Amino acid sequence: MSEVFKFKNIMVGVDISEDAQKAFHYAVERAHIDAAKLLIVSILETDNMNVYQAMDNNYIKSEREKLMARLLTYQQYAVAHGVKEVETYTGEGDVAEVIVKTILPNVTADLLVVGSNDKKGLIGYFGSHAAYIAKNAPISVMVVR
């Protein structure tokens, strides 16, 4: 019987949505089981800011600080749950494009885990971040619902 395939570098996209939380917990468990490095990425969605927020340096600084604090919490959780190597990454802009075009080309991930995030309204009509990532990422993608 052949050995089950194990991932070496698992990236997970996190935000505050329920599906992203499920994706994070799956990625932590899988990284622990596979003895893989866990790469945690979170993107500051500057595209979703209104013009007043985008022009307010204090607002942007505050949002960056919140994002970094959340990433530290995720990192500590992963280590406490048996993941030996954890790295964090951030970016700003459109979540899917930043992950696919900026972050993935600069890391050695072999699996990307993201939440499905059911979107309502106009963005749901044109497609979600998860759909874009699954279609355009150069590595295996797991979409968690």
Q: Could you say which overall geometry the principal axes of the C-alpha atoms support?
A: globular
* Spatial order of the strands forming the largest sheet: 3-2-1-4-5
The total of helices stands at 6
Structural class: alpha/beta
How many strands, which pairing sense, and closed or not: the largest β-sheet?
5 strands, parallel
User: How many runs of DSSP E, i.e. beta strands?
Assistant: 5
> Unreliable segments (pLDDT under 50, ≥5 consecutive)?
120-126
The percentage helix is: 40-55%
What is the average of the pLDDT values? Answer: 89
Amount of beta strand: 15-25%
Task: Provide an overview of this structure.
This protein has 145 residues and is an alpha/beta fold. Helices cover 48% and strands 21% of the residues. The protein has 6 helices and 5 strands, in the order βαβααβαβααβ. The protein has helices at 18-34, 51-55, 57-80, 95-103, 121-126, 129-136; strands spanning 9-13, 37-44, 86-92, 111-115, 140-144. The protein has a 5-stranded parallel sheet, sandwiched between helices. It is globular. Residues 120-126 have low confidence and may be disordered.
Question: Which features characterize this protein?
Answer:
145 residues, alpha/beta, five-stranded parallel sheet, 21% strand, globular
What's the short version?
The chain is α/β, with parallel strands linked by helices.
Which secondary structure elements does this structure contain, and how are they paired or packed?
Elements: E1 9-13, H1 18-34, E2 37-44, H2 51-55, H3 57-80, E3 86-92, H4 95-103, E4 111-115, H5 121-126, H6 129-136, E5 140-144
Parallel strand pairs: 1-2, 1-4, 2-3, 4-5
Helix pairs in contact: 4-6
